[in-house]
Amino acid sequence: MIRFRSAVPAACALAxxxxxxxxxxxxxxxxxxxxxxxxxxAVVAVPETVPVATKxxxxxxxxxxxxxxxxxxxVEVHDGFTLPRGxxxxxxxxxxxxxxxxxxxxxxxxxxxxxxxxxxxxxELPVKRVVTPGGTELDAIATITLRKTGGSWxxxxxxxxxxxxxxxxxxxxxxxxxxxxxxxxxxxxxTTARQLEQSRDEYLAARQRAAAASLEQLRGQLRAxxxxxxxxxxxxxxxxxxxNGVDDEEPAVAVLTVRGAEExxxxxxxxLVQQPAGSYVWRSAxxxxxxxxxxxxxxAATDASAHPILTLFPNSQGLTGQLEIGAAxxxxxxxxxxxxxxxxxxxxxxxxxxxx
Length: 356
Known about the structure:
The chain is an alpha+beta fold and about 350 residues long. It has 4 helices and 17 strands. The chain folds into 3 domains: about 110 residues, Nuclear Transport Factor 2, Chain: A (Roll); about 80 residues; about 120 residues. The chain is rod-shaped.
C-alpha cells in the first residue's frame, strides 16, 4: 500500500498584485497543489477556488479535494510456483523426486541426477503482479499550511491521503508473472519434468527387462541336478550341486563342496532376491554344515552375522558365485562353469528349524 504524507517547506513567491479583498493565499495554495503532486502521482485537477482558513496562530490552512493519476503501476511480489503452470510443473518434479528417494538407493546415478536437477529447477522464482495499473485516477484530500514570512505567504507543510494498493515497482530484475520471461521459465520447467519422467520410465522399463532376463537365466541354471565347478582364490576346487531348483515347490537348495586338504561341504537354502537395478540373484538365507567346515569356520560360530552367505548371479557363461564369511571379511568371488546334470543328488539331511 502506497501512502504519502509529508511536510514540504516551499517558497512560493507569487506577487500580491491582486489587491482589494482577494485572499492571496488561495492562489499560492492552488499553484502549489498544481505543481507538487505526491511521489508517484501526477495532478489531474485542482479546484478553481481553494479556500484558506486562518488558524489561531495566524497560519493559513487549506483542505482541498484534488484528483491525481498514478504514473506507474504498483505491484506485489509472490512465488511464481503458485501460478497454475508453475504449480503443475512443480508437482511433476516433486513426484519424480519422491519416486527417486523412495525407490533408488543412495549414490545411484539416476537418483543423484534427479535430486540435483529438481533442486536446480525449483530454485526461487519471484514474480510480480500488477495491483494498481498505471494511469489509475483517484480523489484525495490534500492539506496545506501557509505562514507569512516577511511580506509574503509561504507553504510550510503539505500532506495528502492519496494511496493505492500495492508497492512501487522498484526491482526491474523481477519479471511480471505474465511476461515472456516467466513463460519461458515455465517452458523449461515442463521440459525438465518431461525429461526426468522419461528417465524414470526408461529406468523402470530397463529394470523390468533385467528382471525378466535374470529370472529366465536363473530358472534355466538353477534346476535340480545342475552342477557347477570353479576355484577359490587359493586354488581349492569348488563344486556346487543344485539339489532343489528355483521352480520347485520348496526353497532352492545349493550344496557347496570345497576339495582342499580336507573336503568341506555345506547346504545353503535360499530364495530369489531382486536387486535395486531389477535383476534377480539367488541368495542363501540358511546354512547347514555337512562335513568338516574349514572354509566356513569363524571364531564366533554362534553369531548369526558370521554365518556364510552364498549368492549366485546369472551370466552368459553360467553362474558367478559370491561367498561372504563374516560381516568384517571381504566377499570371495567364485567364477563357476556348468558341468552337466547329475542323476543322483547326494542324500542331504533335513535342515533343523533352529539352524539359521
